[in-house]
């Protein structure tokens, strides 16, 4: 069966250029975008139940732009004015630059890694006297706290936002030849919205090992898995699959 329609469980790309649009043009595909999950901030009441007192902390470890948004949101809601002396340790330069939305960018107080928590360990160790706060989601990857603990970096987690399933009820009678997932939360959302979902001939693509494991754990068939040496991106993996399928026609 040829692939004609694809649903990507992410927001539609911004702008007119995207590898997905190139793929759609090249193979005459209909590609739709729909986030299966979204982020909701915890309430002040829920935050207070965690017994985390933000004014006690002198440094913040930021692993995403979402963490930045929710740290400053909760600070505003509890009427805490973040001091100019606060230090920020960001997982990447993109997250560090995003801080400009909230603070005057001063390099001496903002440190960043290349893309992983491991990159931050050296700067964190140089500031061991600080009291570190880690704003996070309810599904924080174990690797982040484990890496900090292994490096003996003292820190406190503050769950400021959670990932929840989006309402997909309007898709109930819509069929796609391929579903593309980027997180275990997307798979959870699929079954929350459609408890009786049967894969049948639907092709399922997953990006990353944790997403692939979630596909298999839910007794689904994993047809496409990226990244791979011959397919570093999701679009490359999809294209390889379509080429292979077209050969068999």
How would you explain this protein's 3D organization?
The protein is 34% helix and 21% strand. α7 runs parallel beside α8. The mean pLDDT is 92. It has 249 residues and is of the alpha/beta class. The longest helix is centred in the C-terminal third of the chain and has 14 residues, at 234-247. α6 links the parallel β7 (132-137) and β8 (155-165). The chain is elongated.
What labels would you give this structure?
Rossmann fold, alpha/beta, six-stranded mixed sheet, 249 residues, 2 domains, five-stranded parallel sheet
Give the strand tally: 11
Radius of gyration: 21 Å
Low-confidence regions: none
Distance between the termini: 8 Å
The biggest beta sheet, please? 6 strands, mixed
Work out the helix count: 9
H/E topology pattern: EHEEHEHEHEHEHEEHEHEH
Secondary structure layout:
Elements: E1 5-8, H1 19-27, E2 30-33, E3 37-41, H2 44-49, E4 59-62, H3 65-77, E5 87-90, H4 93-98, E6 110-112, H5 117-125, E7 132-137, H6 143-150, E8 155-165, E9 178-181, H7 184-193, E10 203-207, H8 209-217, E11 224-226, H9 234-247
Parallel strand pairs: 1-2, 1-9, 4-5, 4-7, 5-6, 7-8, 9-10, 10-11
Antiparallel strand pairs: 3-8
Helix pairs in contact: 7-8
